Amino acid sequence: MSEEKTPRFFHGDPRKVIAEIGKEEILGHLKKMLLIRNFEMRGEQAYQQGKVGGFYHSYMGQEAIQVGCLAAVGSHSHWFTTTYRCHALALLLGVTPNEAMAELYGRATGNALGRGGSMHLYGNRMLGGLAIVGGHVPIATGAAFSIKYQKQKGALSFCFLGDGAVVQGAVHESLNIAALWHLPCVYVVENNHWGMGTAVSRAVCIEPIAENLAKSYGIRSYTVDGANFFDCYSLFKEVLSDVLERSEPVLIEAITERFRGHSISDPGLYRTKEELAMAMDEKDPIRILKLALMEAGLITEEKFKVLDKEQRDIVIAAMKFADDSPWPDPIILEEGVFAQEGG
Ligand SMILES: Cc1ncc(C[n+]2csc(CCOP(=O)(O)OP(=O)(O)O)c2C)c(N)n1
User: Fold this and answer.
1) Which CATH number fits the domain that encloses residue 33?
2) What is the model's pTM?
3) Domain residues for 190?
4) Residue 293 in contact with residue 26, Cβ under 8 Å?
5) Cα of 21 to ligand 1 centre, how many Å?
6) CA 135 to CA 319: how far, in whole Å?
7) 10-residue stretch averages of pLDDT, the chain, 343 residues long
8) How many domains does the chain have?
9) Is residue 339 included in any domain, yes or no?
10) Which residue has a Cα nearest atom 5 of ligand 1?
């Protein structure tokens, strides 16, 4: 990366963050990351066994971004929108592991009654799980408009999108209207370096993305290490108070790594095993948080193993729940369908 391409990273102070969050609560955030990791690993396993159909996009490797965001901003009043890579956000926004897993299995007890599958999970404040690249960005922008129009206090709209989505027209129209109308929307580009098998440098003409793009729309931008919980938490705290105060959109770029192929059917031949192994070692958000908490004397290796096992057991129980759940009754196929062709 040449010098002008090097972003200015936003940093958080781990000691300050631990003092602010509290010792027990920060372990709670580690547990959430472990839940997501275990959910993704077991979900993949179920897929390989033929129990999960359709697509499967793992969030493994990116956990610190959405866990850090939710830890900082809470979920009570905001709107959240994301892509097909949506298991983590759903789990963070109150979808239980049972109903998320049952949705992957296509069962009636699933989060979308077994009709949506892996890419279409919904939560109380979660507008989707949406699979058209860039297509969800106007939806998040609309949510920000509704917050402003209804004069809702303390609420923002958070939109997670991939680096590959940045070149979609809908994203630019959204940024323009959000800046023009001063909408309280936080756009978070999760830059995992790849859009399917295409490197970001072959698809997007500017880097760093957020710093450059934000200039065109006259809005603030930040770049953050998406593997570092403390940095992500601190950034989202800062952005929360900033956007609430100014009611202006903000563009964040979280540099991250996806530990799997684009989807489960992607063998990932475009990157070497060594590159991936290095990323999974050096940029593992769970390992980074674990080491920091060990250094702070908040956790031991043994305690970490106990927490990991607890989360694994929750996910294994969710798989059993899904396995034991009924298939949807075909008679309800047209229920909840709001648009139909013809008269
Ligand atoms: C409009 C549209 N074009 C193409 C696709 C096929 N497609 C699905 S995911 C994807 C890559 C998106 O990459 P990125 O935005 O970086 O997100 P990531 O998968 O890395 O999280 C593409 C091209 C699609 N779903 N929608």
Assistant:
1) 3.40.50.970
2) 0.97
3) 29-323
4) yes
5) 35
6) 31
7) 73 97 96 98 98 97 98 95 98 98 98 95 94 98 98 97 98 98 98 97 96 97 98 98 97 98 96 95 98 97 98 98 97 83 62
8) 1
9) no
10) 133
